[in-house]
Amino acid sequence: MVTDAIPVRVRREGGLWTLTAPPGTLSRPVVRGNRVFVLVDGRPVACDRADGTVVWQSPHRVIGEQEPWQAGLTATGGHLVAPTAWTDRFSPGRATLSVLAAESGSLLWEFDPGELAEYRADRETLVVWHGREGGRPIRLTGFDLGTGRRLWEHAFGSVGTMQLVAGRAIASVRHGTLLWRRPRPSVIRPVPTGDQVLLIEGDGQHDRLLLVDGDTGAAVEG
Hints:
The chain is mainly beta. It is built from no helices and 18 strands. β3 (about 30) and β4 (about 35-40) form a beta hairpin.
């Protein structure tokens, strides 16, 4: 029971529903299965997808001082991941990651990465791009989503982009084992399509569109 629950109201009409909260407190919603997850004044709230009934409201405030429209949740594998601040690879900054149980809103664990650039969550694993040296984030670290156990860590001079495809990046998400490496960088963020990845390789002047196998990195012919 949350003793200081944030007041929210659900209005139902014609098979639709609307959740209303105090002005300036709602984040972008995330839909996963039969639940809709949203931050209300920084606290995760779960609603029934069918009728908007509030299933639970977490007592944990998981965001810092960013604007509500910047805040967001990632829902995957029965877990919710929320950063305390908005960051990306172009503007890394101080932020803590909170991981909660999607069924109850209970806080499972937190990680302070120092300087956070990006993170990705896929099924049972959280991959964090963090740390800094000379102002640049330099580490990729994999964690077990349920326990927070550190699975692996790799140092990089630089990371151009981070994309998970079927549980894998250029390395196995669960084990950190290198799977493949292309000889030239992609000038766009890799785009997953099924078991394959779409790239544009080149130097910005002499580029080519390329479809590669997600397991091997080999170019797909035809």
